[in-house]
Design brief:
Number of strands: 7
Distance between the termini: 42 Å
CATH class: Alpha Beta
Bound molecules: S-adenosylmethionine
Number of helices: 9
CATH superfamily: Vaccinia Virus protein VP39
Strand order of the largest sheet: 3-2-1-4-5-7-6
Structural class: alpha/beta
Length: 234
């Protein structure tokens, strides 16, 4: 029986939702805080009034944006995996701040938002899991206001010299550690596979232009294992 990729991704994140943050910080040696920081700094420069954090998961990018941006900024944080959103909402409740964030269900394949709704859309480590990347990027483009910006924080293809160490870690060490902690080695093997097959900075740039964005810049970080793409709607 054919099971759509979106369904598999949703199920996988449902299974690891409760351990997601812990594993994220351990497996990235805490560098994920720095990557989100860099993303928030880039968004802050634009001083947006309306932001959507898509594939928000447990909400860390949305929280970072809320801390960094003007308090008047309305942040919509959407994800299609309810257990991940539940984790985000628990964190929001516990913190007693972040009242400018609305967490809600949203599937990047058909977003339930009007055309031209947001000044900025951010998406961190989500694009890689889209069932149809071009469709998702076109949906984001539709919901952005003219001159609006999309920021994608995502894994990328590392510098050549770093590749052997990186893929050794990604393919063998990471799934083993994550498997012990989450009891779902398969989920992390799948994630490692999607990282290995994800396009380079140049290739993702081309995909963004093909989806209809007018200008794209890419910034590599941590030996280019991760990159931020900034794409602008005409
Ligand atoms: C690796 S997590 C990233 C979460 C968060 N952005 C972060 O930086 O920690 C990927 C998230 O993308 C979400 N996702 C994948 N495909 C999606 C889609 N089509 N629509 C909405 N969310 C999606 C998953 O449910 C998951 O929560």
């Amino acid at each position: 029986m054919h099971i759509p990729i979106g369904h598999k991704v949703k199920k996988m994140f449902s299974g690891i939702a409760y351990k997601y943050d812990f594993l994220n910080h351990i497996l990235s040696f805490g560098i994920d805080y720095y990557w989100r920081d860099c993303l928030a700094k880039k968004v802050k420069k634009l001083d947006p009034k309306t932001v959507m954090d898509l594939a928000t998961g447990s909400g860390d990018v949305a929280f970072k944006l809320s801390d960094s941006l003007n308090k008047e900024c309305a942040i919509t944080a959407a994800d299609f995996c309810q257990p991940m959103l539940d984790q985000a909402k628990i964190k929001q409740l516990k913190s007693k701040k972040y009242s400018n964030i609305t967490f809600q269900f949203g599937d990047a394949m058909h977003l339930d938002f009007e055309d031209n709704s947001f000044d900025v859309v951010t998406i961190a480590f989500g694009v890689r899991n889209f069932e149809d990347r071009n469709k998702g990027l076109r949906e984001i483009l539709r919901t952005l206001k003219p001159k609006g910006s999309l920021f994608i924080l995502e894994f990328s293809q590392p510098n050549v010299w770093f590749k052997p160490f990186y893929f050794l870690y990604l393919k063998y060490i990471l799934p083993t550690i994550a498997g012990i902690i989450s009891r779902d080695k398969n989920a992390y093997q799948y994630l490692a596979g999607t990282i290995e097959s994800f396009p380079s900075k140049e290739a993702l740039k081309s995909q963004l232009l093909e989806a209809g964005f007018s200008k794209v810049d890419a910034y590599g970080m941590t030996f280019s294992t991760v990159a931020i793409h900034h794409a602008i709607k005409q």
